[in-house]
């Protein structure tokens, strides 16, 4: 396969396993985000792809060739890590030209390539500027241009946007994705920001405890989470306990759920239902009865919190579909079968 393949990669530091039996295929030209909480092993995995750490087990293949024993500088990678490490004493053009100069590219060709790269990152005319006189976003783009100067096969980025403020970060996410699509370069980004991953990735790889919990498209990860960790980590969700009643039928919070089944052989499971999939209705019918405890009006969305026998459930709606309820009111909560994802506990 052309692209990157990780085959049963593990990494141990002494007796501690940071990455455990990871298998991933990243087809050529795709954008993968590795996402997970702090300490889940995503940076360690990226460092192994970069050749900065050696796997304890497993192999790394790039376009079919085993690169596991190949040192970083011979892997044909572009890297942008959290600390940008632009050279403060060099101007923008000199920073971008640095890898070309080290490679011994002729002066004229360096200039041509730098001009192309400045255009690519929308910083034409900035070549002479000292990097200290750039904004955070501009510095980020210079780091990206420098990493891409030698047209690498693989582009690796570790939390590249985390130092930027929220608005700029969102704009840069779109910019980075568009750039990647234009260049068609295989790209792997480590992030702990799920919105960032959902914005940019073809495939989101969700990790926890050194293991891959799910690797799928953003929409699939959101709609069909593989387990309760993924359901809870991506977006917000209501995780409800589902159990069998005396007749073996599935119930949630005491209500029979005719359209749902417990996994074979299990008396209990979890159901994940997204807040925007819940409907509120009058109490006393087929729905689950509860009491409104809080309403959060965020302008664009309204969150209604409902207490059902001590469990808090949140429903989200747009202002136009705002439920006509107030705090203290009794309501019925409808869980549409098709929106319920049944997961093992
Ligand atoms: P963060 O988002 O906080 O950067 P991460 O998911 O990138 O987290 P890693 O940096 O990959 O996590 O670390 C995974 C685990 O491996 C952590 O528990 C970390 O303490 C441990 N670890 C990483 N590098 C080393 C090392 N050189 N020696 C010992 N343990 C390490």
From TrEMBL:
The keyword Coiled coil does not apply. One of its GO terms (cellular component) is ATP-binding cassette (ABC) transporter complex. Keywords: ATP-binding, Nucleotide-binding, Transport. It comes from the Bacteria. GO terms for molecular function: ABC-type transporter activity; ATP binding; ATP hydrolysis activity. It is a peripheral membrane protein. SMART domains: AAA. It is found in: Cell inner membrane. Residues 4-234 form the ABC transporter domain. Belongs to the ABC transporter superfamily. This is Polyamine ABC transporter ATP-binding protein.
